[in-house]
Structures are given as structure tokens and as C-alpha cells.
Design brief:
This protein has 123 residues and is mainly α. Helices cover 71% and strands 0% of the residues.
Length: 123
């Protein structure tokens, strides 16, 4: 079963939302900047790998059977778009040096809470 993975992803999503909340306190953010960045890096890598694996494996579903267009159709589904939107800000922040812009992009990480619907039926 996928139970350990779903618990891991649920926990990681909740921790990401908590990190975004904690980062709103300037003093706390500056004091723990390295911890926040390390956690963001780790979780972004995990979610990027998850997104890539979902994109790769989506052709097993009959709705997305075509090797190219099936993946494109899958990538345009709402949950796949949320997955993509939540990892892009990290990669953009590597190239954008304007700190206020980076902080606004970081807020998109909160969209990861919508990913919980994949792991919990009540959402």
C-alpha cells in the first residue's frame, strides 16, 4: 500500500504551510534562515521528484495513454498544475534577486495545501 508515502506527503505539506506561517515573523525568519532554506530545498526536491514520477507514470491511466499528448493532458489537470505551481517559485527564486518578489513567490507554496486532497478523501 501507499500508506507510508501518503503520511509522509501529508506531513511534509503541513510542515511547509507551517514554515510559511513562521517565516512571516521577520526576527524569527532571520534567526532561522538557514533552517528554512534547507527545509524548502528538501521539500522542493521531494515534490519535484513526485511531480516528475506522476508525469512519467500517468500513461498507465487510460485517459492519458498517449506518450506525449497524454502527459500534456495530465500536466494540464488541476492537481498537476497545483503541483507545478508549488515547485516553480523555488526555481525562479534562484534567478530572481529581488527579495520582495521572492517572498511573494514563496507564498505560492501555501497552495501545497490543495495537494492534501490527493492524499485525504475528506478534502
Amino acid at each position: 500500500t501507499l500508506f507510508p508515502y501518503t503520511t509522509l506527503f501529508r506531513s511534509l505539506i503541513c510542515l511547509n504551510v507551517l514554515a510559511v506561517i513562521l517565516e512571516t515573523d521577520r526576527a524569527f525568519r532571520e534567526l532561522n534562515q538557514a533552517i528554512f532554506y534547507s527545509f524548502l530545498l528538501f521539500s522542493t526536491i521531494v515534490f519535484t521528484i513526485e511531480y516528475a514520477l506522476r508525469l512519467w507514470a500517468c500513461t498507465a491511466d487510460t485517459r492519458f495513454q498517449s506518450p506525449l499528448w497524454g502527459r500534456v493532458r495530465y500536466a494540464l489537470t488541476p492537481l498537476a498544475l497545483i503541483d507545478l505551481i508549488t515547485v516553480i517559485p523555488f526555481y525562479l527564486s534562484l534567478f530572481v534577486q529581488d527579495q520582495p518578489v521572492v517572498r511573494v513567490l514563496r507564498l505560492l507554496v501555501v497552495l501545497r495545501i490543495f495537494k492534501l486532497s490527493r492524499y485525504h478523501a475528506s478534502f
